[in-house]
Write a structure and sequence with these properties.
Keywords: TPR repeat. The protein is mainly alpha-helical and about 140 residues long. It is built from six helices and two strands. The protein has a two-stranded antiparallel ribbon. Helix 3 packs antiparallel against helix 4 and helix 5 packs antiparallel against helix 6. It is globular, with a radius of gyration of 17 Å. The N and C termini lie far apart (about 45 Å).
């Protein structure tokens, strides 16, 4: 399957979607290095496309580069704060980066008047450690 994307990439080396799809193919094959290379190319071709950051984060997770994954996924969430997949993977990376599963997760959705979109997620760990992540660049 990845070979088919390889042929397609040769035809159109500027299609970020092809690199994203081939990155996913490499992820399914368990090849984190190739997945990372294609995700990086995807991000380079479409730097404002959150999906490229998601693929990049997935590849970093497979390579157990949890801190880098957190940074990349955070950048993706700045581009698309409503992307549930990005947010879920961010918290998974955060938990693995900390070397343990967090005690208990308490989501708090802080709203501005008249706005129903989530602005912040707050995670509480029963070790006295609080992690706050803002998904709104204006806050």
């Amino acid at each position: 399957m990845c070979a088919s994307y390889g042929r397609a990439v040769k035809v159109d080396p500027y299609d970020a979607g092809l690199f994203s799809s081939r990155s996913l193919c490499w992820l399914h094959a368990g090849d984190g290095k190739r997945a990372l290379q294609d995700a990086a190319r995807c991000k380079m071709l479409r730097p404002k496309w959150a999906k490229g950051y998601y693929r990049h984060g997935q590849a970093l997770m497979l390579l157990k580069e949890y801190e880098k994954a957190c940074d990349t996924l955070s950048e993706g969430l700045e581009l698309d704060p409503m992307c549930d997949e990005l947010e879920k993977l961010y918290w998974e990376a955060m938990e693995l980066k900390n070397g343990r599963a967090l005690g208990r997760r308490f989501p708090f959705w802080l709203m501005s008047p008249g706005n129903t979109r989530k602005k912040h997620s707050v995670v509480c760990s029963f070790g006295g450690c609080w992690t706050v992540f803002s998904t709104s660049p204006s806050m």
